Amino acid sequence: MSVPYAAPGWRWAPAWVLVFVALWPVPGLAEAVLALGAIAGILRLLLSRFRGSAALLSGPAWALTSVLFFAYWLPEALSAIDAADRARALREALVDLRYLPFLWIGASAVTTEEGRRRTFGGLAVIVGVWTLDALVEAATDTSPLFWAIDHAKQALSGHGMCTAAQVAAADRLSGVLGPCNLKLGIVLASLSPFALDAAGRRYGRIGWASAAMLVGLVVLLAGSRAAWVTYALVLAWTGWRLLGWKRLLAVFGLGAALLLGAALVSPTVAERMNRSTAVFVGNAQGIDHALSGRSRIWSAAFCMARTHPFNGVGARGFRDAFPACDAEVGTRAAWGTGPALHAHQVVLEVLSETGGIGLLLWLAGAAMAWRAWRYADAAARAHARPAMLALAVTVFPLNTHLAAYSTFWGGVLLLLAALYAGSLLGRDPP
């Protein structure tokens, strides 16, 4: 039976998602929007005693969003039992329960054609605006959007978003996120499927190619090598579907030319390329240099997995457990002083911080997400393709990653999971 687009009081869901994403450059406000939206959503459901819930999500969508949440949250909760800082770990696990209504509302935003048009189109616009802003920064050394945010913060609090030391240490294009939050490249790479899909639908191959080149240039200048890998996966998938393999190879050839050109004018890009080629030296030192010291971090992650095989050292407990597992104590690390903060690889992060139980739960969540895709019809897959691709490339296991259990990146992962579940299994009006 057909159901309306949204129950009363939930029509704000697409706008809520877009405001949350648009406020990522101001983490405190973004977190407040997430929390307030989650509270409003759960209160609305409680007051209605969950009547009309089918108007928000289909039964399978309710189930998948809940399964994906518990695949993420249960490992965190179980790892807190014997974490080094048990009180803090348990408190964080309780606070992260807010992500359950967050997933429900995010999924409800894209259950219909109108909701997907607003939400996915809005995300494409955000990616476009942030890309143009970063290109202005590349030309003028100033991001207009971050300049406005920084001056607003100074007017309100008397100090800017970043310290002078953070500004001086910034070694890449930072864009709207600013020099104290150098994540623009990976954020744009993860959200790029929405922009490329919108450009391809509206303007065809020319639109896709133009958007791919502009976003790719910013990812190249702003991103780490992990962002380059993520974006290459997006280009491969979307380009293959739109252009075919022959034209796609030409696109990657152009991308290689851009990479070489950027290396000639950007010392940062040149340094990353030189570091990457060190892997061909063939010895452990060369590989570690190519990986920016991550082989030392990954060795410590395996140590934590061996010593805490069941539920790990605790979500976000990597930095506390690192000294005991560091095989090179007393040697200056490639990242500077202090312990490593996380494993820089999602599989190793889950295994070391939440143990074998956590990894099994993550794999169970991935299996359920894949099963939903496998048994969905062609129309549902077409609806969900941008969100599916964004989620898949963001957690692609043969890459390095930001911390999955950090506030910022955890919110990104769960938002993409919600958009995937809602667009794949949500119900359309007649």
Task: Describe the 3D structure.
- There is one protein chain.
- The chain is mostly helical and 430 residues long.
- It has a domain at 13-176 and 286-386 and 394-425.
- It is 71% helix and 0% strand.
- It is built from 18 helices and no strands.
- The chain has helices at residues 13-22, 27-47, 59-79, 86-95, 99-108, 113-140, 144-157, 164-169, 184-222, 225-243, 245-265, 267-277, 284-290, 294-307, 318-325, 346-375, 378-394, 407-425.
- Helix 1 runs parallel beside helix 6 (113-140) and helix 3 packs antiparallel against helix 5 (99-108).
- The longest helix is centred in the middle third of the chain and has 39 residues, at 184-222.
- The chain is globular and about 60 Å long.
- Mean pLDDT is 87; it is low at 1-9.
